Amino acid sequence: MNDRTWGGFGPGKEPGEGAGGAPGACSPEAGAWTHVPIREECDVAVARRRARELARHQGFPESGVEAIATAVSEVARNIVVHAAPGEIVLGAASEPGRRGVVVVAHDEEPGIPDLQEAMRDGFSTSGGLGLGLPSARRFMDEFSIASPPGGGTTVTMKKWTHDPDE
Ligand SMILES: Nc1ncnc2c1ncn2[C@@H]1O[C@H](COP(=O)(O)OP(=O)(O)O)[C@@H](O)[C@H]1O
Ligand SMILES: [Mg+2]
Q1: How far is the CA of 6 from the centre of ligand 2 (A)?
Q2: Which of 4, 45, 90, 93 shows a CA-CA span of 20 to 30 A to 59?
Q3: Per-residue confidence at 12, pLDDT binned at 50, 70, 90?
Q4: Mean of the per-residue pLDDT values of the chain
Q5: Which residues line ligand 1 (CB under 6 A)?
Q6: Which domains are seen in the chain, by residue range?
Q7: Closest ligand to Cα 127
């Protein structure tokens, strides 16, 4: 892992390629992604609401719904505060025995020069609490962040729940 990625997936992947490459069991069906443009604070609420709806649809208990909604709020707010514009992309995933929600937060600039530092509890360049990224990571099951030099930031997160149909 170089110093411009942090977490499990690695840089430069498109939504749905994060955990496994080509479309497969873990990828949302084609066309199943929801795109929420993020420019200002009210867009954060839209992303949060869409995330809640998708998580409920996927069968998450309310605690999981709220965890996903909170993680989405944090990465969406980071786009507003540190980077706007950008977007949140939400997708449903399924694998044998489990269902999930995939969240990709993406923006084009300015990027994050030191991801290790950005992931630390309490680190903020804006006088914030510096808890957004670390808490998003804790709320989700899988988390990665990439910020290649000269580019923006992409955060990819997944959370899973038991598939009630199996
Ligand atoms: N999308 C982003 N673009 C640029 N910098 C970001 C982005 N998201 C987070 N950061 C950087 O990472 C730091 C830590 O983020 P976070 O944990 O959410 O804390 P806070 O937002 O309270 O500062 C931010 O202060 C900022 O420097
Ligand atoms: Mg933040």
Answers
A1: 16
A2: 45
A3: very low
A4: 87
A5: 74, 78-79, 81-83, 107, 110, 112, 118, 123-126, 128-134, 153
A6: 29-162 (3.30.565.10)
A7: 1
